[in-house]
Specification:
The chain is an alpha/beta fold. The chain is built from 14 helices and 21 strands. It has a six-stranded mixed β-sheet, sandwiched between helices. Strand 18, helix 11 and strand 19 form a beta-alpha-beta unit. Helix 11 runs parallel beside helix 14. The longest helix has 36 residues. It starts with a helix and ends with a helix. Bound molecules: guanosine-5'-diphosphate (GDP). Keywords: Cytoplasm, GTP-binding, Initiation factor, Nucleotide-binding, Protein biosynthesis. One of its GO terms (cellular component) is cytosol. Belongs to the TRAFAC class translation factor GTPase superfamily. Classic translation factor GTPase family. IF-2 subfamily. GO terms for molecular function: GTP binding; GTPase activity; translation initiation factor activity.
Amino acid sequence: EDIRVYEFAEACGKSPAEVITVLFGLGMMVTKNDFLKQDELEILGEEFGIEVTVKDALEDVNYVEDYQEEVDISHFVTRPPVVTIMGHVDHGKTSLLDKIRSSKVASGEAGGITQHISAYTIEQSGQKITFVDTPGHAAFSAMRARGADVTDIVIIVVAADDGVMPQTEEVISHAKASGCPIIVAVNKMDKETANMDMVKAQMAEREMTPVDWGGDVEFIGVSAHTGMGIDDLLENILLQAEILELKADPKAKVKAAVVEASLEKGRGPVATVIVQNGILRLGDNIVCDTTYGRVKAITNDLGKPVKELGLSETGTVLGLNEVPAAGAIMVGQDSDKEARDIATKRAEHARAKELSKSTKVSLEEMSGLIAEGKIKQLPVIIKTDVAGSLEAIKGSLEKIQNDEVKVKVVHAGVGGITESDLVLASASEGCIILGFNVRPTGSVKNKAKADGVTINTYSIIYDLIDDVKDALSGMMSAII
Ligand code: GDP
């Protein structure tokens, strides 16, 4: 599906200019790096008298889909369930997660559980259960949207004294959408004002009818303070898990979902994962979205170094070259070369796609401005990691100009892309930010989106220059 203008041109023996001209004649502005849409492909096919079949360009690097072949049903063993707890704020999600953990971890190991962590495994009646702490139901669904449906069972926590609240309703929707079995934990049953029947009635109104009322949802009264009902809750989870018949192949290449990741001082990128198939071992070559690496260290949920993580187990992994996004899927590869190649290809596609989007937007805006005679220049802000590359880029960009249009460097500096750069960019019409070996932080990225500021990042100077050239030629054709 994803083919860029110049790739298409190459494939049918035309020049990118011919392709661009055809589309331009029909009012479709594209540059040679843009991805062609389905309708554009059809038009081009007709125009050039060739048959266009649409196939996925990412096909060869879709390592997650390919992974299915790794799994062998004859190796299947039962794996522990993975449970997510969600609920209205202050209804006791965190307290419950902490209580379950502290009451189920042997006292000798209690030292490792002082800090709150995003996932852990406990044992109940000799069987394992893994709990994941998702930052919220939005994050839960976002992860599922990315293909990381790690959760097998959802627990909705409702405070017995407070009942159903707005976020409880949202959680119900998200939980239902996930298709996972749901257990309702009615928390704070130690309180005098606790009212289980009220909660049941409110939930029943929202199609969450309790089993003892003729429905199919288990309601378990618990107290994160006293520990009351927790065994009951855990037994219920095991029961649900049994019905689900959760299976996985421990002999397959490892596949694990990232539930949290960050950059830690002195340690580099650290990812908290849950193993879904295979076993994650020290030394494994892994790809995770656009990041890759070799597993240098594994720390289990008690903070202890371990050599491996088994099915549904959780821990943190060191060794990726960059921080992956939560919800990314980590997959083992045969060699470090393979891992690097896949990650690099994916990164390249993601970058090109992003670029194609952003260039288009700013170009469209700009052609309007040009038509009005407002601008004849492309304002840019350049940020780089070191002074040397800054000078090189600035010099090259200032050289690419002609009679109609030229690059105007609004600001050039060494360092990350900051909010102050955004303010600056917003202040000069059509200004784009070019980052070389620097990336905007998540919050800057979001703000840029909100402000409509385009940020393009590069790791190859040639690519940067080339894109700017393309943007300028786009501006020129708009003038003509
Ligand atoms: P979260 O926002 O859902 O994570 O809620 P917290 O775990 O932070 O709990 C919110 C408040 O409720 C805290 O003050 C807890 O001490 C209190 N709380 C949580 N569970 C219980 C419980 O079982 N009984 C009582 N009495 N208070 C609880």
